[in-house]
Amino acid sequence: MKPKHYHDEEALGKIYDRRLARRMFGYLKPYGTQVTIAILLLLTVAALQVAGPYLMKIGIDDYIAAGDWHGLRLLALVFVGVLLLQFVAAYAQAYVMNWTGQRIMYDLRMEIFGHFQRLQLSFFDKNPVGRLITRATTDVDVLNELFTSGVIKIFGDIFTLAGIVAAMLWINWKLALVSFAVIPLLVAATAVFKMKVRDAFRRVRTCIARINAFLQENVTGMAVVQVFGQKERQYEEFRRRNQDHRDAFLDSIFYYAVFYPVVNLIGALAVALILWYGGLQVMEGALTLGAVVAFIQYADRFYRPISDLSEKFGILQSAMASSERIFKLLDTQPSIEQDPQPYRPRQARGEIEFRNVTFAYKPGNPVLHDVSFKVSPGERVAIVGATGSGKSTIISLLSRFYEIEEGQILIDGVDVRQWDMGALRRQMAIVLQDVFLFSGTVEENIALWSSREHPAPDPKSLREAARQVHAEPFIEELEQGYQSRIAERGSSLSVGQRQLLAFARALARDPRVLILDEATSSIDTETELLIQDALDRLMQGRTSLVVAHRLSTIQTSDRIIVLHKGRIREAGTHQQLLAQKGLYHTLYQLQYKDQLKGAWASEGQDGEAISCLDRA
Ligand code: ATP
Ligand code: MG
Questions:
Q1: In terms of C-beta density within 10 A (0-12 exposed, 13-18 middle, 19 or more buried), how is residue 207 classed?
Q2: Nearest Cα residue to atom 3 of ligand 1
Q3: Poorest-confidence range of 95-109, 496-510, 558-572?
Q4: For residue 547, which atom of ligand 1 is closest to its CA?
Q5: What is the pLDDT of residues 330-346, one digit of tens each?
Q6: Cα Rg of the chain (Å, integer)
Q7: pTM
Q8: Which chain residues have CB less than 5 Å from ligand 2, an ion?
Q9: Which residue, among 508, 510, 333, 512, has the nearest Cα to 419 in the 3D structure?
Q10: Contact 201, 245 (CB under 8 A)
Q11: How far is the CA of 211 from the CAs of 7, 248, 257, 319, 511, in angstroms?
């Protein structure tokens, strides 16, 4: 269980990439007004920050020194006004920026999710779930941070710094130069810190990715872990990964813990310089006391943004990396394209044809070779074959989940590539090997296929569908019947129940073509009979292509196709194939005979079993 997929989480990349930045700021465009307001507010805050100490200087030099109480009172009022204004502007700025940030996150998440839905299935085969979820959650969060506290604040910081430098130089350029003397120290400290923290953060991110990958696998596979007594081993492995993460994080904390006191020290040094040199100047009468006080305050407001800048660079850097990953995802073109003038019939006849189809999941490693067969409208065809022979693959190709390399797949004589994708899939109801249920009510799951243009029939017909396929008895036993909530992935239902529900879903849709990939899990005879009867009703009057594992399904088919290692080896009815004494005969002897025996055995207790065998 080595983590394989976190390597791309490691790279932090450049601090600033113009191409990425331009694209990122594209997301700000719809919110131009808000962004402009936020920037104006930021400039206001910056200007007010510069104004504070200057007012202080005026107060000391012009009013206190001169004993002008009236002027001082007025100035105090102005000072309070400046503080209040600064508070309001900072609040409004934060609000507007977060408002915008949340909207950008919303837009971006919708775009990512919409893109997921357009991508072909092979993309999801290659990309682990955890990674894709990270794209839509953590990576989007990082970008949000960039917009709300990163870039825009850097802008404000730089403006504040420029204002302060100007004010200091204007008040007294000599003292200003003296207080700037510590800047090289600050720059050096920041550079060292940035380098160290970047390495530590890279390790933290890698460790988090490893923890996530491990958690995802273990939570999903908890049953296996417990059954195979792997709890201790996995616990130990998790402890190791968790420890790595803790240590890496502590390292980064260490650098922060050193850096901020160092910056404070440098700031204190600056204040000391100002006191010393400024004090001398005051004694010589070259400077006023108010100027020294203003300088001390400026120094404080000066060094804070500089030390913050390095943090902002960190945000910028991870935002660049996140945006790169998001854009890479968004740039993945769906490889299955819709025909510009698609075929979109009102009602299909339901004829299926494979013409010399060759297909590979991985290039050069075909799993289907030159497969040709035809299913006439209304015909029931079963596909049988050993595990891994390519049965489910045929089904995936039919609904165009993957693109084939050679040959043609035709529905009603029209190549699936010319079909309108929605129309194509609407003709078919597909029951996959492992039934997927969404969290929601039973009823919602039966009507899953409905959409705005194709609304679900009324609840009565949905129930009728459930009744037809014998799903109603178990549904009514649930606490709230059709309104019962199904747990995620349908884990609160048994495999057989899930299958019946999937049948109801298919029947309610009333398709021309029924595609069914039978579950391989064996079921008890009683359920088997229910399912068989349900299937019969389901296939009534439709074309059906069924990957069959159960003898009863196979025997009720009009025709059987025997697949072996991706090639069609035999085709015909049950009797014909048995008479051929070929592969089907062998399969029958090995596999299905036992099923037959099982059915015979239960015959004595279950009257209905006889009817099943009669049919056989
Ligand atoms: P079973 O009876 O066990 O369901 P199957 O006949 O349905 O088997 P398929 O699922 O069609 O078998 O698989 C055929 C071959 O293609 C197998 O060798 C399998 O390893 C491979 N395969 C299936 N799905 C993928 C995939 N998404 N990516 C790569 N290879 C795949
Ligand atoms: Mg299969």
A1: buried
A2: 387
A3: 496-510
A4: 7
A5: 988 877 777 788 888 88
A6: 36
A7: 0.71
A8: 392, 433
A9: 512
A10: no
A11: 13, 13, 25, 21, 45
